[in-house]
Amino acid sequence: MTALWHCQEVTSPSTAGAVRQGSLRELNLAVVLRRIATADRPPSRAEVAAGTGLTRATISAVVDDLIGGRLVAEAEPAPRTGAGRPARGLVLAGDGPAGLGLEVNVDYLAACVVDLAGTVRHHVVRRADLRPVSPTDALARLAALAADARAAAAGQGLTLAGAALAVPGLVGAGGLVRLAPNLGWRDVDVPALLAGHRLTEPVDGVPRLVVENEANLAALGELHAGPSGSASFLHISGEIGIGAGIVLDGRLYRGARGWSGEIGHIPVHPEGRPCRCGGRGCLERYAGQEVVLAAAGLAGADLPADTAATRLADLARAGDPATLAALADAGTALGVAVAGVVNLLDLDTVVLGGGYAPLAPWLRPPVVAELSRRVLTAAWSPVTVRPAALGARSAAVGGAASVVRRIVDRPVGWLARSG
Question: To which protein family does this belong (predicted)?
Answer without folding.
Answer: Belongs to the ROK (NagC/XylR) family.
